[in-house]
Amino acid sequence: MTKIVVIGAGVAGLTTSYLLAQKGYDVSIIAKNLPGDIDPEYTSPYAGAEWYSLASKDEIFEQELDKPGYFELRKLAKDPKSGIHIIDSYEYIKFEDADNYEFPWFVDFVEGFEMINDRSKLPDDCKFGFKFSGLTATTTIYLYYLLNKCVELGVTYKRYKLDHINDAFSLHHSGEKSDYVINCTGLLAGKLNGVNDPLVYPVRGQTLLVTNTPKKQLTVSNFEGYDDEMLYIIPRKEGGTILGGCFQKHSTVQEVDTALIQRISERAVKYCPELIDPSINHNKNYLDIVKVNVGFRPYRKGGPRIEIDKQNSKIIHNYGAGGSGYQSSYGMSGKTIELLEKSIKLNGSKSKL
Ligand SMILES: Cc1cc2nc3c(=O)[nH]c(=O)nc-3n(C[C@H](O)[C@H](O)[C@H](O)COP(=O)(O)OP(=O)(O)OC[C@H]3O[C@@H](n4cnc5c(N)ncnc54)[C@H](O)[C@@H]3O)c2cc1C
To answer: Which of 186, 188, 190, 237 could form a disulfide with 298 if both were Cys (CB 3.0 to 4.6 A apart)?
Structure first.
């Protein structure tokens, strides 16, 4: 059985490990952080974790990464243990954006796509909207779910912080040298020796977790004077909602921005009044904030790195998911495994020469 060490237990490392184990590989996960940890360098627990592809019409590679997740995560939503649920996802378009608005690339394949043109169903400053059947994961529950799925298939996991990527080869649970290493280190790919990718950078996001629960997911963009902000409302399966947010490039500020809490709260209530409607889901008539989160998306200039290492063909990289790590998890991991199998073939034929 081919021995693999996967570095990282975020959504990328866990999804890759799960898919590898399903294919019969002998996998050990090595990670500084594991599900349950809260650490600014461990992004996955902080996500809104909706499926809403951010790829533009020209970003064909990113589209290919996001598309499989729509179907695979919907399948997992059928398992009540996964923490994933299917919910209608709305977007409202403001008057000033309406004429030049480009519909997202995915409207052709998502289920239940419908236009909203009835102005009585829209906020005053929005000309039209649309909805489709979306999905979202409660990150902490889904990460544990993935880890447990891995363990059921024989994957082991160990907390360990690697100084150099090559050290991973000696950490397979069998005690023997690992045949391959898969690098799913997210933001820390910039700091891991042997990788030290200078293209990785953080994009700060601040969100609120509230107990209020609307019946829909919602996105609204274009808030004057705040180019790096948008409104997203992501209700959780178990109740409660993530309200966001911002996309602050290169910011590593961990402190909460109180003015931003205020802006997010005002926008949320304005565009989704059902959040504070007691006739819906027993909501409080005010936003009941449980927690304010600050997380750092692992962006990479030029896009995610899914690549066989140029120096060592036994290392495959899978990081740099940016703001899309959940929705692209199946696409990124699938492509990573394709590369692994290509490398196994090449290395096999080399050793026969
Ligand atoms: C506010 C916010 C909202 C978001 N919303 C969404 C959304 O709606 N939809 C979506 O799809 N995505 C969303 N994202 C993005 C998503 O969270 C990330 O893309 C994803 O979590 C990245 O996962 P990862 O596994 O690559 O990295 P991480 O989760 O950071 O995992 C990296 C792993 O590598 C380990 N590691 C790193 N270096 C070492 C080392 N030297 N030795 C050992 N272990 C190491 C870490 O300990 C960790 O286990 C959001 C992110 C934020 C912050």
So the answer is: 186
